[in-house]
Write a structure and sequence with these properties.
Structural class: alpha/beta
Helix content: 25-40%
Radius of gyration: 22 Å
Strand content: 15-25%
CATH topology of one domain: Rossmann fold
Mean pLDDT: 93
Strand order of the largest sheet: 10-9-11-12-13-14
Amino acid sequence: MAVSNLLYDALFAAGAAEAPAIDGRFTYRQLEAETARWAAALAGLGVKPGDRIAVQVEKSVANLVFYLAVLRTGAIYLPLNTAYTLAELGYFIGDAEPALIVCDPTRREGVEALGSGARVETLDKAGEGSLADLARAAPAGFETVARGAGDLAAICYTSGTTGRSKGAMLTHGALHSNAATLVREWRFTAADVLLHALPIYHVHGLFVATHTAMMAGASMILLPRFEPTEVLAALPRASVMMGVPTFYTRLLAQPALTPEASAHVRLFVSGSAPLLAATHREWETRTGEAIIERYGMTETGMNASNPYDGPRLAGAVGPALPGVALRIAGEAGEAQAAGQAGLVEVKGPNVFAGYWRNPEKTAEAFTADGWFRTGDLGRIDARGYLWLVGRASDLVISGGLNVYPAEVEAAIDAVPGVIESAVIGLPHADFGETVTAVVVAQAEVTEADILAALSDRLARFKQPRRVIFVAALPRNSMGKVTKAVLRAEHAALFEAGRVTVS
């Protein structure tokens, strides 16, 4: 009897052996053979089931093959944003204690200098490096390691508004159930071609997009990054596109976006950050297609989605997915009636197994009856559609990436001349919302001073796009800064026009 590896096996179950898996590169048979070599290379490095493998490399076909090989070995994949600095990387490595770290060749020396004791191998954006060399030299066969529903497949670090990032433990069962549900709900088949322009260091690109396509036996056009003209050129070959709101606002800025250009695509999906209702309406006007907005998070994968068949409401994230339960709770945990706002809680097979080596935070994240507290505020209407109205925390989601203000505030407060700061997210047509700093400082401190001081301390996506100077920060009777007041005061700051990313 063949060994069962729940998630890995499911990703190859529907794909016909000679059907294309990745546009122009691999059939499903070839892809599986390639994962065997990479898995054998990992085993040759001493990687064992349950070992953590930290990965900070650019998106490539080789990167995706490597991920699949990690699943096949029974190890635990730990994707890390390529924008993280070495100082930031040190925290994740120290917390996860990986057996192997894979990074870009230009970073090898810096990663080794972190002194974690883990083996370091390399992989660049072209798919070359010491790990690729080992895979080429490895034997062609590999006996897949058995993994069940409760075994960990990945640890993805998620941000909060206070304290350090926490490692969400994602099981084979949770990732499998979520992708299988999306295959059904979004009507994926082996005839589909997914235009994949998302990064693969977080849930949206690696799990939602890749898993859903592969579990249906579909093909992927794997672009290294989102670039509007390249995406428009590829649209006629695709039937599905997944993206963050930034993708859609930038495509809308292209005159070449017409109903004819997008006619072959049956499904556009948006997530990772709020999609402005105006963007939803403009997209439908320009293309004739209504975007499906959905709601998910690192700890749960996808929780809700506007329906494939049925109204796709601008501003709503749709009903709960089959098998997933959503409820709205008041501050004391009491159930809220339809239409009343409160804390969004979720329960289902998609929910994570807890935070890595953090039982206290895990306990805090769940109610006494087992529901996960998302930290989001929302309401469920009479039709069962979820409408998100804010966040219980001050988490900023910019371009689909999580930023917690406490970390940015600490870096700003360390700048000479700064008295105090408050970091908020403000609505932005391109990014959904964008990081903005409100600062009390001595007269000689400038916006340029603060941004320059942060350039080497924080990843680019965490750095404020604007710094606003004020005489004092608003506070409540308990002395706490009232960020809701700041957000209301400066809500229109980025309405003048879209900001171009450098």
